[in-house]
Specification:
The complex is a heterodimer of chains A (1011) and B (502). Chain A is mostly beta strands. In chain A, the strands form twelve sheets. Chain A has a 22-stranded antiparallel β-barrel. Chain A has a five-stranded mixed beta sheet with strand order 11-16-17-14-15. Chain B contains 18 helices and seven strands. Chain B has helices at 2-17, 40-52, 68-71, 87-94, 102-124, 132-157, 179-196, 213-226, 230-242, 252-255, 284-288, 303-309, 374-387, 391-404, 414-429, 435-441, 445-459, 486-491; strands at residues 31-32, 76-77, 266-270, 300-301, 319-321, 344-346, 369-373. In chain B, strands 2-4 form a two-stranded antiparallel ribbon. In chain B, helix 5 packs antiparallel against helix 6, helix 7 packs antiparallel against helix 8 and helix 9 (230-242) crosses helix 13. Chain B is globular and about 105 Å long. The termini of chain B are far apart. The chains are: A mainly beta (1011), B mainly alpha (502). Strand 33 (636-644) of chain A pairs antiparallel with strand 1 of chain B, so a sheet runs across the interface.
Chain lengths: 1011, 502
């Protein structure tokens, strides 16, 4: 080992020796651990000339004495050797097993990757910085098996939502974020450039140590730390253009008028518009409110270190405009991490992170802008504008109940300033050898301020505001966490074990304040503050909310001969959210693994480089602290008003404000995970397969209760039942090298099925109350949650004979109000009529058969190229706009082509009904007409980069410089009629696209530089 | 060894820090139910909360439903010609009714909210440490309101779940009681309430508008009449008449006037007042106002009603026609005919500009909503008396109402007297939300709707609503009752059954 190093370094020192450039024949053998290696690439640097070693590890090629040979083979460290005076070169390669020796953070401790017993996936920080996204969550999508990222919408600064292994509950399925051992819900103060790596803990045995919220998986983020070595500086900048990825095709002015005329005529009334072509193409509302938008980022990281002091700091800036006008996001982040080695056994670490952002909140216009009739101009004609008209009243009234979108945009003033971050100190004391105590104190703070103003204006009686109003909301959060962990590790001969015990306290306070004023003297910007409001017309509210969690944790790691691994944890949690008697829960876990490849019966020939079988079981408690209101266990009294007396004075009444539950308690998630990790062919091919089953007991969620109990629209938080989820995660990674082209392919596949095994009182949970369709999704006992439930269509009646023959066994006509062109609905129970409770059934399932991600990286000389595909297959979706936009009889606009696609006579179509305003047959009630296939394949990211040569870099004093071009959300293949099939949702309501702000397509150029 | 001592010391300290008080948090900023009803102020607030369910916080909650009695009859149309605007409201007017109609759901939900609040008060206030008489007075108010809410429910939906005490979520597995059982509870509640409620004349400036003895008896009479228990109905109606608490001294024009709240003829009205910051009041003036006059144009009077009223002196106080001289600011009223099915506007809910809400996004105003008034009671009395064969008393009550508007006495007998009474009801109470219920309880809905459709489609020559076929879906066997909201049936897992035919 050492001799090779000296050999290589002395060769490199001779680089500048100029020798006669004469071709000669070079031969040699490449081996590792005394074994020859076939297929190794031997190439001449800077050329395409090269060869590979044969079955015995031998190679030969022609080269000059100034040539440098590059010897490379995946799974081994590369070597570069100057030919020099040699004609025979025997090369010994060193295995690149650093992957398995990597340290993985597992929570209040760390282990080597090979020693993991749970299901853990890792994303390196560099993978995140390649993507031009604002938030870390967006960069993870498609890269890890079992980790599903669905867009949070394309609004500037919006965060994607992550679900790990599907759903474990009907409520609140987001994972826990842990940043440097501190559990957090908000990671908005971190930029992707601050991340060293991300570990995702997927099963209970891995995440049990974190307790509450970890039941949905844990995302451990480790930020960059200083390393011993000279100061390094890196700078990443990029500039992007964002545009609308898919524009909805709506009927233009003429088609709108023609469609409404046709519908009216079908009902036996006269046409509404005498001459539709007068309207021409009318208004394209979508174009009016969207734009091409810019997105710029810059990030700087500096780190340095000596034995005694290590420092790492980072800064970033992002500025994103919205593709819908009137929205924007700007953020600055900064961090500083320092580690002092005070004594040999005492280390002090200090960490500060802060992020400050400003979001201009645009109004939600997407559903409205599709519905607006195209025959109306956005602005009033100039002859209707008087000289003193209010600037917010210059917009045309609309025919529908949707307010004029351009007017809506103009009068939207809402800005959010958000400051958040963490400050922490920790002390690590190695008391005696093997025994260490760590105390870690962190404060997370967040200050949220929103300023909102609504001007007064008049467009029409249904769209006006006579009194302007201003409000300011200011909320503060402070979370204080204090961990005290004592760890003891020891190795006795072949036994290695480590024991950990700890006390964790967490204290959270949320302070809210909101004030609103009315009747500012004018709409001008300088007066949009509470001070300008009319006295005696102010309303204000504010409160404190506290939450405390106390936990005792313990863990044992044991390994025997480095081959047989055992891990056990136990955690006792007490939460302030639950009533007396239900506050505490105890949650254990245990897991084990067997490194089969270390056994003697597995040969060392490199076919099976690594084989590990692992299994784990665990229980985690979840108090739903981010969703469960602190008042859930009690019934509160709130104000309602009634007038009494001859003065007509408003008096305050006291009424129940929620439905309390005095029996509420911990939700428990229990899971079993069995996994296998295989690396084959000298680590060229890696396969990770996990099979899991997860059960949730006493799920906590709001429950719709019968209206006759009298709580208005309030739901009750209760432990509503049990949930089961099982599935498979598969990750395959393949590396290969052909000539000078290195390539790396990764495929992730995830499949899960979920079932609500028990609902407290058996009643189905209905979710997604749609104005036209009522409840969209139903969650019933024994079934997958969130199923779509409605009528079943069976073609379109082509003539009266068909209507009359659609009858039950007694000849009763099932749909007597139908006319030719109306939908035929199935009479599922055969009773001769269509009723809501007897003739509806499950018509769709939003659960995908599988979701996948496919990534490929190529490296060739100075170029690199990568592409990331992701998608979903077999999931049903519902476009919540379709009841309005596919219904030509509605007053709203419709999709282009609705007129020509609708039924216009016998035989014209069997899938689209006739146009009608009155719709006596109720063609547009909730049926499978609205259920579509939501399968999609998306090219999420494509990137090509160029690394400047070492010569060039040396001249300008840089260590690395890369220029790249990339695109995000390049194309999506899907048959879904909505704007974007990638919508998340909750367990009880998902797969519904509901006026979501669509994701933009982003095209970027950027530069990565390091010194 | 030393080190181990330090460690133990540290851990003991940490344990002291981590003791269980740490996870006891109190709730801040709100009171809770378990310690409410502890004094007279809280008891009073609880009762006010029961009243508040009559007029929930937002225009879309109950106000629209108060128009149902007019649109589901020959008195009014949906109004707004825009089909997509308030589609469910239009469906009701059209009798194209299905169980997902949002207005049926809000009526159900808020009536039960009132019942729940009343049940809580009836259960808890007797434990409040206050005078017995005070307890009885509060409980009586709660019972009166509970009777009122069940009255709305039973005449809309028929038999419904009957709750006389607050139920917890675990106990909730009720099926529908029969209509008879609901009526019995209503009668019981109004009777109990009447024992402890004060008379209207005993109320002071602070309490005027709250429930009274007369209101309880009047509602009792009405409930009995709905059940066709004519003898008792007449008896209780007479009790109200003889109490001399109410009279017809107010001019007809002043009956529905924002400047005459709780007037001489008002037996019980929902109290409203305008308030900028709390968004309170009644939205009815805006809901029914002309679209050219800051209104939304719903529930507009039909030409059928207009023709029926003819030259009756009450017509100009009930209907505003296109071009009418209404007040100083509206000398030629524009009912916005292109957006108004009938070219007419309800005069009773109309407010002149100085009485309207000055500034408010929802434009709610202080016009009280009369639920029952003296003229209504007199006509109920007349009807009950007639059915009991006491035509003389019937004629006296009937003629009192006519005299107020300077109409001559009616001297008819037999069938003609009953017709006259029915006719007078329509003339006196038009556009106040009664017509559908009056027609249906006296088994006249079928013939009235048939006549209405025939008029509209065949004989009407009105400029605006001739040919309007709203109501063509009317089904006599079905539409005497509304369907139970589908969401309630779904949530009950079928324990609650739907009305026949829906």
């Amino acid at each position: 080992m050492k001799t090779i190093k000296i050999f290589i370094s002395s060769l490199i020192l001779l680089t500048f020796v100029s020798l006669h450039a004469q071709q000669k024949s070079i031969t040699g053998m490449v081996s590792s651990n005394e074994l020859p290696i076939p297929g190794v690439n031997v190439t001449i640097k800077g050329t395409f000339i090269g060869t590979t070693t044969d079955f015995d590890g031998n190679f030969s090629l022609e080269a000059t004495s100034t040539d440098i040979l590059i010897i490379s083979y995946l799974g081994y460290k590369n070597q570069e050797l100057l030919v020099g005076v040699n004609t025979i070169m025997n090369i010994k390669l060193v295995e690149n097993t650093s992957q398995l020796d990597e340290i993985v953070i597992v929570g209040y401790g760390s282990v080597k990757k090979r020693d993991l017993t749970g299901a853990v996936s890792v994303v390196k920080g560099e993978e995140l910085t390649k993507r031009n996204v604002v938030n870390i969550q967006d960069a993870i999508g498609g890269q890890l098996p079992g980790v599903q990222v669905s867009s949070g919408g394309g609004a500037p600064g919006a965060e994607a939502t992550i679900t790990i292994r599907g759903f474990s509950s009907l409520n609140g399925n987001g994972p826990l974020y842990v940043v440097d051992d501190v559990p957090l819900d908000d990671i908005g103060f971190l930029s992707p450039n601050d991340v060293e790596n991300i570990q995702v803990l997927k099963d209970a045995s891995a995440s049990a140590i974190f307790g509450s919220r970890a039941s949905n998986g844990v995302i451990i983020i480790t930020t960059k730390k200083g390393k011993v070595g000279k100061t390094s500086v890196s700078l990443n900048v990029s500039s992007s253009i964002q545009s609308v990825a898919k524009k909805p095709e709506m009927a233009d002015g003429t088609e709108y008028a023609k469609t409404k005329n046709a519908a009216s005529i079908n009902d036996g009334n006269s046409a509404l518009y005498a001459d539709p072509s007068n309207f021409g193409s009318g208004t394209d509302w979508w174009d009016e409110i969207t734009q091409v938008a810019l997105f710029n980022t810059a990030a700087l990281n500096i780190s340095s270190g000596t034995e005694k002091l290590k420092i790492s700091s980072g800064f970033s800036y992002q500025n994103q405009e919205g593709i819908q006008k009137g929205g924007g996001f700007e953020r600055i982040t900064a961090r500083l991490n320092t580690e002092y080695k005070l004594l040999d056994n005492l280390t002090f670490v200090q960490d500060f992170n802060i992020g400050s952002s400003t979001t201009i909140n645009g109004p939600n216009l997407i559903s409205g802008v599709q519905r607006l009739e195209s025959i109306t101009d956005p602005y009033l004609p100039s002859y209707e504008l008087s000289s003193d008209i209010n600037e917010f009243s210059i917009f045309s009234p609309t025919i529908t109940d949707v307010p004029n979108a351009v007017g809506n945009l103009a009068r939207n003033f809402s800005e959010t300033d958000y400051l958040s971050g963490t400050g922490s100190i920790s002390l690590n004391w190695e008391i005696i050898e093997g025994l260490s105590l760590k105390t870690h104190f962190t404060t997370y703070f967040a200050s949220y301020e929103n300023n909102w103003f609504a001007p007064n204006y008049t467009i029409e009686p249904n769209d006006e505001r006579l009194v302007n109003s201003v409000s300011r909301q200011h909320n503060n959060r402070t979370n204080i966490t204090w961990n005290n962990i004592l760890t003891y590790s020891k190795q006795i001969k072949e036994h290695r074990f480590s024991v950990m015990g700890g006390i964790i306290t967490e204290s959270r306070e949320h302070r809210t304040l909101n004030a609103q004023g009315l009747n500012i003297p004018s709409n001008e910007p300088a007066l949009r503050y509470l001070d300008a409001g009319e006295p005696e017309k102010f309303t204000a509210s504010g409160n404190n909310e506290n939450y405390n969690l106390l936990s005792y944790i313990g863990r044992l790691n044991y390994s025997f001969k480095e081959k047989y691994l055992l891990n056990a944890t136990i955690r006792a949690d007490g939460s302030s959210l639950f009533p007396e008697g239900n506050k505490w829960g105890i949650f254990p876990s245990v897991s084990g693994a067997w490194v089969v490849s270390d056994e003697d019966f597995i040969s060392d020939d490199g076919v099976i480089s690594f084989l590990k079988i692992r299994a784990g079981w665990g229980q985690i408690g979840n108090d739903n602290r981010n969703d469960l209101p602190v008042t859930a266990r009690l019934t509160t009294i709130v104000n309602d008003f009634y007038t009494t007396g001859s003065e007509g004075a408003l008096a305050i009444g006291g009424v129940p404000g929620n439905v309390g539950n005095p029996n509420i308690k911990w939700e428990t998630v229990e899971d079993i995970n069995v996994g296998i990790d295989i690396n084959l062919f000298r680590n060229k091919l890696g396969i990770n397969l996990d099979v899991y089953k997860r059960k949730t007991f006493d799920m906590l969620m709001p429950k719709n209760i019968p209206a006759y109990l009298g709580s208005g629209y309030d739901a009750q938080w209760a432990n509503v039942g049990n949930f089961e989820n099982q599935g498979v995660d598969l990750g395959i990674n393949f590396k290969t090298q052909m000539g000078n082209v290195k390539s790396n392919f990764t495929l992730n596949l995830s499949h899960y099925t979920a079932k609500v095994s028990n609902l407290a009182d058996g009643t189905a949970i209905l979710d997604g109350n749609h104005q036209r369709l009522n409840f969209l999704a139903r969650t019933s006992e024994g079934q997958t949650p969130g199923l779509f439930y409605g009528y079943v269509t069976d073609g379109v009646f082509q003539n009266n004979t068909e209507i009359n023959s659609h009858s039950d066994q007694f000849g009763t006509i099932i749909q007597p109000d139908a006319q030719p062109g109306d939908f035929r609905f199935k009479d599922l129970n055969g009773d001769g009529e269509l009723t809501d409770d007897k003739d509806r059934e499950v018509i769709g399932d939003p659960t995908p058969d599988f979701t996948f991600g496919f990534k490929m990286n190529f490296e060739y000389e100075k170029f690199d190229f990568s592409a990331l595909f992701r998608g979903s297959y077999g999931n049903d979706m519902l476009n919540a706009e379709k009841p309005y936009l596919s219904n030509g009889g509605e007053i709203y606009n419709s999709y282009a082509g609705t007129l020509t696609n609708s039924w216009s006579g016998e035989g014209s179509t069997n899938t689209e009904p006739r146009l009608t305003v009155e719709d006596p047959n109720r063609n547009f009630k909730y049926s499978d007409y609205y259920i579509e296939d939501g399968s999609f394949l998306r090219l999420q990211n494509i990137q090509i980069g160029y690394n400047f040569s070492k010569n060039f870099l040396n001249k300008i004093g840089m260590r690395k410089a890369r220029i790249y071009a990339s695109a995000e959300n390049v194309f999506t293949l899907t048959s879904f009629s909505g704007l974007d099939p990638d919508v998340g949702g909750s367990a009880t309501l998902r797969g519904v696209e509901w006026g979501n702000y669509p994701l933009p397509r982003i095209v970027s150029m950027g530069l990565n530089i390091s010194f | 060894m030393k080190h181990i001592k330090y460690i133990i010391f540290l851990f003991i300290n940490l344990n002291i820090i981590g003791c269980s008080d740490f996870i006891e948090n109190e709730i801040t900023g709100v009171q809770t139910l378990d310690n409410y009803y502890s004094n007279i102020e809280e008891a009073n607030k609880a009762i006010l909360g029961c009243y508040a369910s009559l007029s929930p916080q937002d225009w879309w909650q109950m106000d629209f439903f108060r128009l149902v009695g007019d649109i589901c009859s020959d008195d009014a149309f949906k109004g707004n010609t825009n089909e997509g605007d308030q589609r469910d409201f239009g469906s009701l007017a059209d009798f194209n009714i299905n169980s997902s109609n949002e207005w049926l759901e809000t009526q159900w939900r808020f009536a039960y909210q009132g019942i729940f609040r009343a049940n809580l008060a009836i259960e808890k206030i007797p434990q409040t440490p206050i005078e017995e008489s005070q307890i009885n007075a509060f409980v009586a108010e709660a019972k009166f309101l509970r009777g009122l809410f069940y009255f709305d429910l039973v005449r809309d939906f028929g038999g419904v779940p009957l709750l006389t005490e607050p139920l917890s979520v675990e106990e909730a597995n009720l099926s529908r009681a029969t209509a008879a059982q609901i009526w019995a509870q209503i009668e019981l509640d109004f009777t109990d309430a009447s024992l402890y409620l004060p008379n209207k004349s005993e109320l002071d400036v602070k309490t005027i508008g709250r429930a009274t003895h007369g209101a309880a008896i009047a509602y009792l009479a009405k409930a009995l009449l709905y059940q066709k228990k004519f003898i008792e109905a007449q008896k209780y109606a007479e009790e109200v008449i003889n109490s001399l608490e109410y009279n017809l001294n107010d001019d007809f024009a002043a009956v529905w006037s924002i400047n005459n709240p709780n007037g001489n003829g008002s037996i019980f009205e929902i109290q409203h007042s305008y308030n900028d910051t709390q968004d309170s009041g009644s939205a009815l003036p805006v809901l029914s106002g002309s679209r050219s006059d800051g209104g939304w144009g719903f529930c507009t009077p039909s030409s059928h009603l207009d023709n029926f009223m003819g030259n009756d002196p009450r017509r100009i106080h009930t209907i505003i026609r296109q071009g009418d001289n209404v007040d100083a600011d509206h000398t030629s009223y524009d009912t916005s005919p292109s957006e108004n099915m009938t070219g007419r506007i309800n005069r009773k809910y109309y407010l002149s500009i100085e009485n309207r809400a000055e500034n408010d996004a929802h434009k709610r105003s202080g016009l009280n909503h009369i639920l029952i008034r003296y003229a209504d009671l007199l006509l109920l009395h007349a009807e009950a008396a007639y059915k009991n064969g006491d035509e003389a008393s019937a004629r006296i009550s009937l003629n009192k109402v006519r005299t107020r508007v300077a109409l001559g006495n009616v001297s008819a007998t037999g069938e003609q007297l009953l017709d006259a009474i029915y006719k007078e009801r329509r003339l006196e109470l038009a556009m106040e939300g009664h017509r559908y219920y009056d027609l249906k309880r006296s088994d006249r809905l079928d013939s009235a709707m048939a006549a209405f459709l025939d008029y509209n489609e065949n004989t009407s020559t009105d400029t605006y609503d001739a040919g309007n076929d709203e109501g063509k879906f009317f089904n006599p066997s079905l539409h005497i009752i509304f369907p139970i909201p589908q969401s309630e049936i779904d949530l009950s897992n079928g324990v609650i059954t739907q009305n026949e035919g829906y």
